[in-house]
Specification:
The protein is an all-alpha fold. The protein has four helices and no strands. The longest helix is centred in the middle third of the chain and has 11 residues, at about 20-30. It is globular, with a radius of gyration of 12 Å.
Length: about 60
């Protein structure tokens, strides 16, 4: 696999806050609201595992 393909696959595994439908999907999958998701991403970055851990500790 080329470097570009690897980067594209890795990028798909990150939490993106835009477009709105993707933010809404992440909220549903993580069981949080948009404010909580935005705060978590700002604090720990776009990695779903880190965001999940952060949200779990915040509760």
């Amino acid at each position: 696999m080329s470097e570009d393909a690897n980067k594209m696959v890795a990028d798909q595994l990150l939490i993106h806050l835009e477009p709105e439908w993707e933010r809404r999907n992440w909220c549903n999958w993580l069981g949080c609201n948009e404010k909580e998701l935005e705060h978590a991403v700002t604090y720990v970055g776009h990695d779903p595992d880190n965001v999940r851990r952060f949200l779990r500790q915040a509760r």
